[in-house]
Design brief:
By secondary structure, the chain is mainly α. The chain is built from three helices and two strands; from the N terminus they run αββαα. The longest helix has 56 residues, at 100-155. The radius of gyration is 46 Å and the shape is rod-shaped.
């Protein structure tokens, strides 16, 4: 039994193998495509380099490789840290100042706080002075009564009651 193969059979089919790693029905975002292009340029001439992990986590605007700090090389770690520090400094330098409304609220808040503190101090002082005056008067009355009793005892009068 022999099978004859017609040479025209292969011309009827279009073969397409696609791109290596391509998944059918999965589209990459613009950011992923841009990151993929950057990686190719960055790793030219470095076959088998492990420094090209795809960035997954984004802090601020910095892309952090999907690795632990202990797994990153010194150069990668330094690059990530420097970038984050520069972003923080930039944000501090370009932070908008307080608006006019915020300045007025801050000033009025300080004024109201100081006024309330002054009123409270005045009230506490008045209450303390009144209480002190009452106690002083009670002590003076007691001393006056004792002094009077001593004077009367010297004069010989007995059975004096204070009431």
């Amino acid at each position: 039994m022999t099978v004859e193969v017609d040479p025209e059979v292969g011309k009827q089919f279009v073969e397409h193998f696609g791109t290596k790693g391509m998944r059918w029905g999965v589209r990459r975002t613009r950011a992923e495509r841009a990151a993929g292009k950057g990686e190719k340029e960055e790793t030219k001439g470095k076959k088998g380099s492990k420094d090209t992990a795809k960035p997954k986590v984004v802090v601020g605007r910095t892309k952090i490789p999907d690795k632990k700090a202990s797994e990153m090389s010194d150069a990668q770690l330094k690059r990530v840290i420097n970038r984050q520090n520069m972003e923080q400094q930039y944000a501090k330098l370009n932070a908008p100042g307080p608006t006019a409304t915020q300045r007025v609220l801050r000033a009025s808040s300080k004024f109201v706080t100081q006024a309330a503190r002054n009123v409270a101090m005045t009230q506490v002082t008045q209450v303390a002075n009144a209480e002190a005056a009452k106690r002083i008067a009670t002590l003076m009355d007691a001393r006056a009564a004792a002094s009077t009793a001593n004077n009367m005892a010297r004069l010989g009068k007995k059975n004096i009651s204070f009431g």
